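Re: weekly structure request thread

Next one in the queue (313 aa):
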Amino acid sequence: MIRLEEYEKQKREDEKELEKLREKFAKKPLLDEKEIFEDFGRYNKRKQELDHLNEDIASIRGKLQELEEAIESTKDNIKRYESQIQVIKTQHPRIDARLNEIANEIPIKRSDLDKVKSQKAKAEEKLSSAQRNDLFLRKYGDEGHCYACGKRMTSVELHSWISKIRREISDLNSMETELRREIEDLGTEQRELKEEKQDLGIFEDELKKNQKSLINREDDKKKVQQVMDDKEDKQKTLMEEIQELSKSEEAYKKFKEKQEMKVAIDQKEANIKRAEERIEEFKKQTLGVEDLQGRYDFIQTSLSQATILKDLI
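Done, posted below.
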């Protein structure tokens, strides 16, 4: 795929070559075309046609090059999408298997969470009862009793029991926090895996777009090539007519040499103009394929992480 840096590099090289061609052209001696050609009026008419034709050919040649680059770029895109789709399809059984595991794990985790919340509620109720007993002892100095079994308890025993209940509640709080985190992580993993399955459709759509684009661009290239062939045939005919009008082979040779240099200059100017247009287009482009490549890389990373999580569970 042709990148912005390559267009900028090519533009700099063409500018240097153009400068050399112009310097070389300027050093060529001026030709008195009236002395070279018999029928100057007829020659002048053919020469004007030839100049316009050469400009058209330079422009068309640039268009052909642009189409060739676009075709190669599209072929590269097709290969990349086909590879990415194959990788994702290969991973799909793993994705589906992990989604099934998550679908089973989440209800179990939620059930465990409900049990912990229920246990915590009972423990908090026991703590509340014990604390009421503690207040009673502080106020009346008598023994308390266990509200669960009715056993009488001293102040020391009651405080020990309160500490035990508080530790139990602390442990249950930790379990609740961990279960909530696990449920949240499973939900996040589930969403990411579903998005990865959706990305397969995105890559398949992009593949179809590029395949269609390739067909269209190859058709365009054939049409432009036909135009180029027709104009080059006409160019050859005009040069032959101009040669017939020349007074001598040596005189025509000097004319032809300078004419070819002028064609080369026109071609370099057309190349530079085209490069400037492409550079401007690149600067305005969105991420496009690079963005999709980033999503593909994300899929690979996520799948690796999912495998690690599965091994840990």
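The chain has one domain: 4-312. The CA atoms of residues 78 and 207 lie 6 Å apart.
Next request, please.
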